[in-house]
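Retry 2 of 3 after timeout on previous attempt. Resubmitting structure tokens to design endpoint.
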């Protein structure tokens, strides 16, 4: 849509709303509704031409190609015409120059009027009464209002020549903030100075302000005839000329007096107000239908699609740092990744993309399996034939998947490399559905699908702390079944198991005869364990840190505790050349550190779960169900069980490198 089209459409909307106002609203006593109608009509007139409604029309490929050819020919003809016109005269430059001059003139005029009002406030004495400030003018000028300032003639105030009705009229302008409406329409007049309908809106808005102020005065039981006579006393020719310098302020003036007098006597029923308000709905609908923009997008029918032969297509994705991407040069992140890819290849369905679309991944760094997994999942609904990364190729018809899914025992480490801030709404829905499905199953008869478990692990790893708190708990999966026993070896068949190792050779130690001393000396006795107090003193000399029942204490306090109670339990260790750590507890200190997977560890972790233990994966808290599943699948590098920390057991799991 060109600028000229927008101007004409908005002007047409303004004209329609003005006609509706003139014939159905102006002479009715519903001034508050009219005030908001006029302001809303202006905003709607400017907004309606910018609205775009999209319509999908089913077309055959032949018709679509013909339409595109016609559009291309039309665009070429327009371009040619524009070039020929520009060779004669640059109309665009001419019109923009004229508009710029008008903008400068009306902008200067707007600022000038504001400055005039500001100078009146500063140069004249002011009298603050309640929420309003009276500005006492030395020059003869009709009463007028701008925001909280009410401008009155100083001599008339001193002689009490200004009736109370006039003061109340001006205070109503200030109380109802009519100056905001005036500033809004004045600014629009600066921008759209060439549109005559703006001036009609301005006149109607200011006139309706007078209706509102008159109505407020008459509600104070002021006789209508007396009030009308008071208004007429301000309408001499001299005051009419003085009014011209008021500009943006609300003031009594001659041009509106006849309509104001007729409106004072008008009574509008509630039924009439409701009926006229309802008539606005079809008017607005017609304007939306007639002056908004309609975009027709051709949609090829499925039957014709099956008959059409499509050539291969590709999408290039550049993987950047900080979860950023460039998809065919268009910027994206993990949150809007799917929305961006959906903007490409709209003319073909996901089924067609599954046959012809190749996705190429590029990066200046090594692309992790977790990153490939994220892109793979993002393209599942969109459709693709092949995803090509530097270290792997995923071909959908063959059913292969990223490395992170193909592994027999996939680790959660690859998933944790994904630094996505939070899961998307679609991922949360998928996680909750799967978690609810397994949580509702009978644990003794649970039928587990590995793909769904991996999906649960992946989504849970990228969820934020709040999302994890609000989501379904991670399912508590049962232990895997024991491996099948080795098949029995029948007579005459070779065993599939290797033969047992040969017995160790006999000892070559000298033979001990009866009555002779043994030639082999007995083993030395075990060393005497150090005294707990001496050990603590020795560790204090090495600069160790001391903890009692999980709280840090000084070395002197630790020595004092051991002197008073020698039955306290002590755990002392040092790691990675850091300070030694000595933990003292009344309760027995049970420490289990497992460097290789074992099934007994799962039973021990289950026991700690009943004691409300805290579970961690690489330092991050995780639900017990997920922790037990990782231990059960032996999907870890190392596990620490630390029951002594703050008297609450802890299970720390470390992922495989």
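Retry 2 succeeded. Sequence:
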């Amino acid at each position: 849509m060109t600028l000229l089209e927008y101007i004409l459409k908005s002007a047409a909307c303004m004209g329609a709303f003005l006609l509706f106002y003139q014939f159905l609203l102006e002479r009715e006593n519903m001034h508050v509704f009219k005030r908001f109608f006029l302001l809303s009509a202006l905003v709607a007139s400017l907004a309606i031409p910018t609205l775009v409604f999209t319509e999908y029309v089913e077309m055959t490929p032949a018709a679509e190609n013909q339409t595109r050819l016609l559009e291309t020919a039309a665009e070429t003809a327009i371009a040619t015409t524009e070039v020929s016109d520009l060779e004669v005269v640059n109309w665009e430059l001419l019109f923009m120059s004229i508009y710029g001059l008008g903008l400068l003139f009306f902008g200067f005029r707007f600022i000038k009027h504001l400055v005039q009002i500001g100078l009146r406030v500063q140069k004249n004495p002011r009298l603050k009464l309640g929420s309003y400030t009276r500005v006492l003018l030395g020059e003869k000028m009709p009463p007028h209002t701008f925001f909280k300032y009410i401008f009155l003639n100083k001599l008339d105030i001193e002689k009490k020549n200004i009736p109370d009705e006039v003061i109340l009229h001006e205070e109503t302008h200030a109380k109802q903030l009519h100056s905001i409406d005036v500033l809004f329409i004045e600014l629009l007049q600066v921008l759209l100075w060439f549109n005559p309908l703006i001036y009609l809106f301005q006149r109607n808005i200011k006139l309706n302000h007078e209706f509102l102020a008159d109505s407020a005065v008459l509600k104070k039981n002021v006789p209508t005839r007396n009030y009308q006579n008071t208004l007429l006393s301000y309408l001499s020719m001299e005051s009419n000329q003085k009014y011209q310098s008021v500009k943006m302020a609300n003031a009594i003036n001659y041009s509106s007096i006849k309509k104001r007098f007729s409106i004072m006597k008008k009574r509008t029923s509630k039924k009439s107000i409701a009926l006229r308000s309802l008539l606005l709905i079809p008017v607005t609908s017609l304007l939306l239908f007639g002056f908004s923009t309609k975009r027709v997008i051709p949609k090829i029918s499925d039957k014709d699609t099956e008959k059409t032969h499509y050539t291969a297509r590709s999408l290039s994705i550049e993987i950047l740092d900080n979860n950023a991407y460039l998809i065919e040069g268009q910027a994206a992140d993990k949150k809007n990744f799917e929305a961006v890819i959906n903007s490409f290849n709209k003319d073909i369905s996901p089924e067609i993309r599954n046959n012809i679309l190749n996705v190429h991944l590029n990066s200046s760094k090594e692309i992790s399996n977790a990153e490939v997994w994220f892109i793979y999942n993002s393209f599942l609904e969109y459709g693709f034939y092949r995803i090509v990364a530097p270290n792997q190729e995923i071909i959908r018809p063959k059913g292969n998947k990223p490395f992170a899914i193909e592994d027999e025992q996939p680790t959660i480490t690859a998933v944790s490399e994904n630094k996505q801030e939070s899961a998307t709404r679609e991922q949360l829905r998928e996680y909750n559905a799967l978690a609810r499905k397994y949580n509702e199953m009978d644990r003794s008869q649970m039928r587990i699908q590995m793909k769904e478990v991996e999906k649960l692990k992946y989504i849970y790893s990228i969820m934020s702390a709040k999302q994890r708190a609000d989501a379904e708990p991670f399912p508590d999966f049962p232990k895997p079944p024991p491996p099948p026993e080795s098949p029995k070896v029948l007579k005459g068949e070779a065993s599939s198991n290797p033969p047992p190792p040969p017995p160790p050779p006999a000892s070559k130690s000298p033979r001990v005869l009866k009555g002779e001393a043994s030639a082999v000396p007995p083993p030395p006795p075990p060393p005497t364990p150090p005294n707990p107090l001496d050990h603590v003193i020795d560790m204090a000399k090495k600069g160790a840190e001391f903890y009692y029942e999980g709280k840090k204490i000084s070395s002197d306090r630790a020595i004092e505790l051991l002197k008073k109670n020698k039955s306290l339990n002590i755990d002392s260790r040092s790691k990675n050349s850091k300070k030694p750590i000595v933990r003292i507890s009344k309760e027995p200190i049970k420490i289990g550190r497992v460097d290789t997977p074992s099934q007994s560890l799962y039973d021990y972790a289950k026991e700690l779960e009943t004691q409300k233990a805290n579970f961690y994966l690489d330092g991050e808290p995780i639900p017990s169900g997920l922790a037990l599943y990782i231990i059960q699948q032996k999907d870890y590098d190392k596990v620490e069980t630390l029951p002594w920390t703050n008297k609450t057991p802890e299970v720390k799991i470390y992922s495989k490198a």
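Attempt log closed. The longest helix spans residues 91-123.
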